[in-house]
What we know:
Largest sheet of chain A: 9 strands, antiparallel
Distance between the termini of chain A: 14 Å
Number of helices of chain A: 1
Number of helices of chain B: 5
Low-confidence stretches of chain A: 34-48
Structural class of chain A: mainly beta
Low-confidence stretches of chain B: 402-477, 553-577
Structural class of chain B: mainly beta
CATH architecture of the largest domain in chain A: Beta Barrel
CATH class of the largest domain in chain A: Mainly Beta
Oligomer: heterodimer
CATH class of the largest domain in chain B: Mainly Beta
Distance between the termini of chain B: 36 Å
Radius of gyration of chain B: 32 Å
CATH topology of the largest domain in chain B: Jelly Rolls
Radius of gyration of chain A: 22 Å
Helix content of chain B: under 10%
CATH architecture of the largest domain in chain B: Sandwich
Shape of chain A: elongated
Helix content of chain A: under 10%
Strand content of chain B: 35-45%
Mean pLDDT of chain A: 83
Mean pLDDT of chain B: 77
Number of domains of chain B: 3
Amino acid sequence: MSQFMLIDEDDNTYLLPEGTVIPDDVKIKADNKSIQRSFRDGAVFPGISRMKSRDISLDFPHWDKTDDDFRDTINELLSWCVKAVKLRDVTRNIETDVLFQQTSIKWDKGGFLRSSDNSVQFEQLFPYWEDVNYSIDYVAGTPVTTSGTLTITNNGYAEMPLLITFSNPSGLVPSIVLLVTENNQGMTIEDPSFGNNVLDVLIMDSKNCEVTLNGVKRNQYINANTGFITIPLTQGTLDYTITGNVGFSVQYKARYFI
Amino acid sequence: MIRDFDTIVKFYTPSGIYIDSFNMQGTNPYAMQLKITDEKIGGLKDFSITIQRDVTIRMFNQMFVEFWINQNRWYTGIVNFLPEVDQKKDDIEIQGNGLYSQLQDQVMSHTYNNKTPQEIIDDIFTNQIFGKTDVLYSIANINPPAITLTTFEANDKKVASVLENLMEICNVNFNAAEYICYVHSDKYIYFEEMEKATLKRNFFEGSDFQDPKVKIKTNKLINAIDIFITDAVSQTVAYSSTVNDTDSIAYYGESKQKLTIPSNMDSDTGENIANYRIEKWKNPKKTIKLKDLKIEEEPFPFGLYGITTRHELNRFVVDECNTLDTWTYNLAGSSIFIDDAIMMSGRNSFRWEVTSYDSDYIQFEFDEPLWFWEDLILWIRPEDWECEYQVYVEDSDGNSLNSDYFILEVNDLNPDYLMLENGTDYFTTNSIRSVFRNVVIEIIHDNRNIALENNDLFVLENGVDELVIDGLEVVLNKMVLGDFNPVSIPNGNQIYNIKKIKIASVGAGTTSYLDRIEVIGRMFSTSKLTMEKIRYSTDNNQILADADFGEIEENAVDKIKEIKETQTSIFSIFEKH
């Protein structure tokens, strides 16, 4: 049985009571349009079909406590609920972005404080669970003239975005061409500034649909009719051609629906 | 996930004395809601600020408002509407306009001879309306093209209308250089070319926006204008000239308008205005509306934007083969006739009659490369069985597929037996077995230069639609004589983009028609459109923007008229508890 944890913006954690479960009757709907919610839910790559954002409900085991203990427990739980930004399944080591919605606490009848129907609901801002840690599949730390292919394994169950970091350029890097041959998703970036400084870092983040140069968004330098790439189920072949010398790394987190 | 922002609304008296300010962070006094509309022509158009009723602050019409967002002054406007004091609502909504609206109230009093637009604007702001508005002026900010107007008289004497007139004249080459006029947040008026060479932003569906509203507007199509000049004495109008765009008329039929210019405006200037309107409206307009865009440190600048929708099968028509004007060509031994009788789509096709073919070709070059394509489709109608095309595809770096791809045509009206003869590129027939007829064969190979070996003899059997010859994958498609057939040339990710397509004639003594060239691929689709209007509003404790792209307003003055409510009550101070 999975154990769950709440995480706040500063990566502080709160372990939910043992025995906390996601109820059996989970409903997940497909959405054939783009995701319903706007940017603040985090980007979802616009593929062919996807799952909708949904509510996640957590049921707690019954609590037999004194009045003070019970109040302390509930207060601590609620304070964590309102500041939680992620819900993590500690057992499976996956997590998802959440926003607290409501909690429900129902007292059992009787003289002793016993509550057997407790639940808390979150809105899942991002319709996937994903690995907690990035997998790093490829690192070219020193500048190299790069052109080649890289096979990336996708152990998840949904298309997987990539986080590619280009750094340590030795001179201007006029163009970067990325293509995943299996799904023909390709991006070309022609940022005229990248490589002016050896400390320049260009990041292609296809989860959040952002290309940033030293932290500043540079999506305008993505060529027309190209966009953010994902790795299809099982595996994908990343075909890269980089004009100029630059080091780069490819990171990713597999995604799961449940 | 709520974006941090820092918004302050500052109020000043007309003389510039600071009154008070509101913020959006929840400390008193604070504004509950903001709405700001910014337009390409004019700048800040209107705004509204909703504040709590129990706020105590001096407020009066004509006071200045500055909107500071994320430590930057985004806009400066003027309050022109305050609610009644005795209203019962719990909140108060203050409304106002940008300073450009003041130019609607000012009237010019001159006509000009042999002046440039810059000289005319300079005279208006330094002599005629000096000190009458809050708009500041510096000639350094006025940079129209150096067109000398022989005579200039505005249709409407309001200064805002005169500026619109001058914009029309300066935008004679609208698609190449677009000039705009607006009042900046520093209160200065600017007249300058809008930078359209590079994208300001590229918004992506699924991240920056959801559900774009896309429309093609055809109701304002203009491709011909009759110009009439008003007679100074009789005030009757006399025909002067007609300006038109023949391509647009050929595509959409004539859509003519009438332009009447004042007596003291020279005909060249009138034609400039007419040409501008045709340049702007000769094709249907694509418009896209996006909602809930994230704001940034500065207001979104006006200019060209990329709007990229999701990855899906897209089909781009490269050319309808209506005119050779968009092609380069060498047709020493061939003739291409523009044929308007036999065609599949559009209004013409290329009728290609090949007498000899040594170096004959036609070549199409994209303005910018088309990335990650999958199939190039040529719609060809053969009239003879020996007509053959060789297709060259070149990318933006000059890499090409050259002879890697080409099409062989089976060249017998009654082929019974099909074989590839020794050392030739041709399939021929004998009369032993009746198998394929009417076949186009594409040979896909890394290096087509390997010659077919001398002792190769290949027989295509009935029912086979694919075979491999020495590693060459041969794909067979049926081709019908006397009809348009799609001929597909797959990419196979061999080159990333298409920059040039060159089609060479191969078979001598043949006639064929080429009607349409398409590129198909599962790819993202980017529309490049200018931003015309943007509305910022607070929602859920954050500021979001709704933007209109590609929608070009007929007349910005009209739009200002709609919203402007003239208020004369200066210092109608009310102090409210």
